[in-house]
Amino acid sequence: MSPALLLVLLLSAGQHGGQGAVGCWRSCQQHVKDQALRTRVCQSCVTSGRADSWLLELGRVKPGPSSQAALRSALTDPEWRVRWGALRAQAKAQGLVERRVLADWVAEAPAKDEVLACLTAARVAAEEGQSTASFLKDAGAKGGAAAARVWARRAAVRDALEVEVYAQEASLRGEALIHLSTFLGQSPARVLLRAMAQRPDSGDETAASALFRVAEKQGGSVGRMLVLEAKPPDRVLINRLFAIYSQQLELLRKGLTSLDVTERRATVQSLRSYGPLAQRELERALGDSDGSVRRLAARGLAESEGLSLMEAAGQRIRADGIPLATQRVWLEVAAADKACEPFLLEVANDTRLLAGARGEAVAWLSECEGRAPSRFQVLSAFLKDAQPLVRAGAVRALARPRSTEGDAAVGAALGDPAPEVVAAALGVVGQQRQRVQGETAVALLDSPHSQVREAAVRALEQLGRAQDVKPLAQTLRQDSVASVRVAAAEALSTLGGPFAASALSEALAKDPDSHVQHVARRGLVRLGFRPP
Prior knowledge:
disordered N terminus, mainly alpha, PBS_lyase_HEAT, ARM-like, HEAT repeat domain-containing protein
């Protein structure tokens, strides 16, 4: 393989520094002196891209002077994964447990290699989420001595890891902070604040980056980490971090207004890593037109408060002064969880809540997993509720899945005295294309309630019957409410035909409402006409 081609392959691995393919190649070239052995093991860096891949390959080679020299040399490498890879290769060659080889090395290392050996043990243990003592407890006869030696040199280990928290390479910072946090048995935020207190504020951006990477890896947020750890003496340091994160949030806000839903979704996902610091932005995203963006924002808000999604939804829905639109969003978010039935039933039965919120909870019950065969029985009680909005929610819930009992309940709801219930029933009629209710929908075009008339128009549009064009044309000409005429114009644009075109042309010329005129013009174009 030519050097030029090899360089291209190494760079295309997409990793950098000591942890990636390039770092792997460099360490292999540095430690393997025998040319034949180098040719065999170094090329594994290209296919794997791991810092220790050449060592894993070396472990498959029959032990000899050249391979043993390479392993001894690798124990001095500045990258801890290379040192650990050398120990693993030794363990494989000797048929020993990896932890025992590590413990033996730490316990026996000469003074000049002591810190490097202790640092390796600390990082290997932390990578497993354990303290060094726990990790080395069952590492053979020298496990205890090795753990004691690491703890005796904890100041040097801490200092070495703190240096990496401020490393130039961003990917190293978060890992070093997690390792240091695990080694000391302290939170990442507390460890970082201690490091910041001993350094000038010129390094604050680097420190902020380290904590942010920890938040991303652990699925938490920098804001909550700092809030939980904050103590009065930390105020200045925390404010320095908050200032940096605020600048980053300022840049992210632009993504919330993007026309590309993918970009808005990515923006909200990034905002979640800021937690309480991004509360204003996450609250704003709750009003996004896309459901996936709203759900991400709600999860971010719940996480920022240390609550489950259902706990956050319950608090928001029951808080004083929360508008119905916000309650709807939280109910929608809760309904995205398939095990949502107990939560929604609790909200639906809470008579302290306004009827609108209870009705929305009932309507979303159809999204939950569970008692599908008995769902109609659950909804039947709400069909008889004293509040029209609750009955309307029950009717809406009957749309999914369709059933004989549900069709009968929808038919009965079309005669309900409350316009909200009738409108909901018409919505189900249209959604399910219940043509058997077509004449009832036509009759309801004369309802005294504009809400019902508009719902009837929408239902007839979805039913798609040619005989409904004439009554819809009459509604477009005569209804006194502009929103109903808009709906009629849209329905006629869908159904088409000469009567539809004539009514749309008349609306374009004579209707007093500009929105009706606009919809009529658009409908004529859709039907193949060129209105003036």
